[in-house]
């Protein structure tokens, strides 16, 4: 019986991992004892980013990011999100994993690649305002949405509670990544209180326009294998439900979407627990 369960666990983990993260391994060059990367195994970043709950956090961040019109315009003009929304989710997941849990060379390589790409991206938003992808203000926005989302998802669906000090440690550690990507050090939060205040300060410049609506729609309705459609819908529902109140109000979130607000937390908890079990693959060392 155990052998049968192990085989089911192994096959299911392969199918789900391939569907959510693609066929390529999410990180080719993991950190080691000799080279712990930018953060290391004792860090709050490793604790949070090694858990499957970050899938919800990553989804939440991608739902928030389109609300900033200039950031959304850059994505709409220079990415294939509309043609491949799940691919964007995969690439974002891989970048976060590599820069936070990869070895130093891998992390610095991916940061350099993104910085180089950003330096070449510019254009105009639908309202006529110019944008450049390496604008420190836009980089800060993306950083805030990601850190707030990963922390939020772990607090809700992670395997253990985080002390206030551990949460602050996470925000502080991740601030270094934002600075490496071009955000101004003086603007990057280093505590949870600063993080919340900084994210909320963007409300006045956020708009749920046509580009944002399309971006969210494509993300929520991405085509995929039937075996992961259910878990994906639950992850999306949990991400929507956990958005800041001002964002939900702006987006006019339909409370009947997905599994419904009263079932979101228990259903998402069940899904993350199942995915966490599948991630503990008995064949992974074979």
Please describe what this structure looks like.
The structure is a single chain. The chain contains 13 helices and 2 strands. It is mainly alpha-helical and 286 residues long. It has a domain at 28-227. Strands 1-2 form a two-stranded antiparallel sheet. The longest helix is centred in the middle third of the chain and has 22 residues, at 136-157. The chain is globular, with a radius of gyration of 18 Å. The two termini are 20 Å apart.
Helices and strands in order:
Layout: H1 2-21, H2 44-49, H3 54-64, H4 69-78, H5 85-101, H6 104-119, E1 122-124, E2 130-132, H7 136-157, H8 164-180, H9 192-200, H10 210-220, H11 226-241, H12 245-251, H13 261-279
Antiparallel strand pairs: 1-2
Helix pairs in contact: 1-13, 3-7, 3-11, 5-6, 7-8, 7-9, 11-13
Gyration radius from CA atoms, angstroms: 18 Å
Q: What form results from the Cα inertia axes?
A: globular
Task: Work out the number of β strands.
Answer: 2
Query: H/E series, N to C?
Result: HHHHHHEEHHHHHHH
Percent in helix: 55-70%
Let me know the average pLDDT: 82
Brief characterization of the structure:
By secondary structure, the protein is mainly alpha-helical.
Quick tags:
mainly alpha; disordered N terminus; disordered C terminus
């Amino acid at each position: 019986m155990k052998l049968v369960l192990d085989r089911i666990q192994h096959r299911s983990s392969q199918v789900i991992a391939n569907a959510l993260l693609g066929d390529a391994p999410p990180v080719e060059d993991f950190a080691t004892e000799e080279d712990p990367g930018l953060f290391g195994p004792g860090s709050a970043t490793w604790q949070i980013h090694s858990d499957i709950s970050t899938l919800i956090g990553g989804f939440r961040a991608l739902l928030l990011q389109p609300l900033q019109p200039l950031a959304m315009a850059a994505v709409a003009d220079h990415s294939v999100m509309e043609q491949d929304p799940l691919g964007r989710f995969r690439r974002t997941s891989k970048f976060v994993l590599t820069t936070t849990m990869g070895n130093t060379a891998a992390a610095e390589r991916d940061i350099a690649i993104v910085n180089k790409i950003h330096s070449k991206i510019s254009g105009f938003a639908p309202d006529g305002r110019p944008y450049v992808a390496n604008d420190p203000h836009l980089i800060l926005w993306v950083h805030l949405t990601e850190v707030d989302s990963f922390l939020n998802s772990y607090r809700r669906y992670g395997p253990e509670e985080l002390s206030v000090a551990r949460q602050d440690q996470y925000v502080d550690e991740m601030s270094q990544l934002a600075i490496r990507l071009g955000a101004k050090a003086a603007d990057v939060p280093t505590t949870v209180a600063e993080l919340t205040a900084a994210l909320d300060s963007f409300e006045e410049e956020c708009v749920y326009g046509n580009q944002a609506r399309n971006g969210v729609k494509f993300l929520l309705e991405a085509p995929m294998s039937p075996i992961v459609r259910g878990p994906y819908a639950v992850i999306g529902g949990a991400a929507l439900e956990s958005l800041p109140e001002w964002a939900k109000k702006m987006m006019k979130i339909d409370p009947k979407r997905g599994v419904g607000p009263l079932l979101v937390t228990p259903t998402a908890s069940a899904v993350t627990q199942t995915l966490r079990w599948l991630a503990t693959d008995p064949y992974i060392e074979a």
